[in-house]
Amino acid sequence: MSSNENNNSLSRQLSGLFTYKNAEKTAALTALIFFVLPLIYSAICLILNVMYSYSEIYSGIIILCTVLAGATFILLIGDSIKQKRNLRNIITSNIPMLFFAGFLLLMLISAAVNGAWIEPDFAKPLPCEDLQMYISFFAVFLFCGCVIRTAKIKRTLITVFCVTSLVMSLLVIADYYFVDLTPMQITAIDNVAPSAVFRNSNHYGYYLSISLILNAGLFIYAESRKLRIFGLISFAVQTAVTVLNDTFGSYLGTAAGLIFMFIIHWIVTGKPGLKALAVFGIFIGITAVMTIWYDTMLSSVITLFKDIKNITSDSSAAVNAGTGRWPLWTTTIQAIAEKPLLGHGINGIADRLEMIWEGIYLPHSEYLQYAVYFGIPALIMYLAGVVSVFIRANKNKRSLDTFTLISLCAAFAYCISAIFGNTKYYTAPYFFIMLGSGYNYCKDTCPVFSLYGKRSQASDANSCDQ
């Protein structure tokens, strides 16, 4: 074989490598690794009977995910060059990503001005919570989620997430009632509220919020009867665990996500999503039954109304509103007013917050956290990016498939939970993957409108690629 023939053969092989399909597989592998991470950590702790730091395992995984995201980017660049795609068209068709790019730019400017990390006097730098963490949310997890647009891959990833979360919930139940599994941090420090592998029960609550919506989506939309049954059982089990977990913010997020699923189904198909309404009824029903033995959610609802009354009446009791969040929020808002353009930098007001609540260094609201760290313009860019993803879905509602819809509902639930929670290195990536997965609809499966809309299902089924 001549030298020219060898070169041509190598060129063809490289050309075959740089395809969107390969980029999508690499992106999916990134999401898959992160989805099974809690299970891997749990298995290691159980087998070795040692409680390793979750951040240590995460640090290694994030390096792997970053490498895979880099490979995905290179494959996409190669495919775009090969397909001779116009750069201007790529940019104009992805306006939401420009908002996130603007957020990243403002974040980097803020870090340059304020320092990438500001260490408070009362604590050592916390693991994984740095500038690299915030960059990875967008450059790794959101990016990889956006690349995935094949129905089979989305279905597989959602199913893997749901299986993993169900196993975690079963371990929580086993630890809570039957056997001590504390080397895994299944229960929180106070040994009351389950936290699974996470450092805090609230963090586990935000994970559960996403999981519950995904399981509800499987029950409502999965084609396989077995998968629908699995989704319903898993949803019921994890609803019970959510009540035990007693994170009211995530509970509200889940309720909002289920209502959003009902509404978006109605908007897309022209018919009310009765199954989503039924799932919401199951969610409330399980909560009501468990209230007989556990008054966690009932107490939270009563406390919510008391907090609203105390805040509106300017009562001194408002200091305890939102389980102590209100003074954190007001202090954070005051700090935002001091430096509205570029913020105080990462961890920039930790000392102030610790004076209010010992050991607390975050505002306990993701949106306030972004504003106080990186400035109000950065927060606006972030919110514009998130909202534009949902607007994009609404504009393409007739093409929206079930898996993209489920991903959007899970992302919406997290957005509501985020009002009350912090941006954490081991929970936020799930949101960004779901948001990215909701960005591009799948063209290789029937749209929701075709399956459930006002037109004849039979005629639509024939027009869909099965």
Number of strands: 0
Q: Which segments are poorly predicted (pLDDT under 50) over 5 or more consecutive residues?
A: 121-125, 455-463
**Could you say how many structural domains there are in total?**
1
Structural class determined from secondary elements? mainly alpha
Distance between the termini: 44 Å
How much of the sequence lies in strands comes to under 5%
Oligomer: single chain
Percent of residues in helical segments? over 70%
**Largest beta-sheet characterization:** none
Task: Describe the global form.
Answer: globular
Number of helices: 20
Radius of gyration: 23 Å
- Mean pLDDT equals 83
Helix and strand string, N-terminal first?
HHHHHHHHHHHHHHHHHHHH
Protein described:
- By secondary structure, the protein is mainly alpha-helical.
- It has one domain (3-463).
- It has helices at residues 3-17, 20-48, 54-83, 87-92, 95-114, 131-147, 151-177, 201-221, 225-245, 248-269, 274-290, 296-312, 321-338, 350-356, 366-374, 376-395, 402-417, 428-437, 448-452, 457-463.
- Helix 2 (20-48) runs parallel beside helix 7, helix 8 runs antiparallel to helix 9 (225-245) and helix 15 packs across helix 16 (376-395).
- The longest helix is centred in the first third of the chain and has 30 residues, at 54-83.
Which terms would index this structure?
single chain, 0% strand, globular
Topology (elements, then pairings):
Layout: H1 3-17, H2 20-48, H3 54-83, H4 87-92, H5 95-114, H6 131-147, H7 151-177, H8 201-221, H9 225-245, H10 248-269, H11 274-290, H12 296-312, H13 321-338, H14 350-356, H15 366-374, H16 376-395, H17 402-417, H18 428-437, H19 448-452, H20 457-463
Helix pairs in contact: 2-3, 2-6, 2-7, 3-6, 5-16, 6-18, 7-8, 7-9, 8-9, 8-10, 8-17, 9-11, 10-11, 10-17, 13-15, 15-16, 17-18
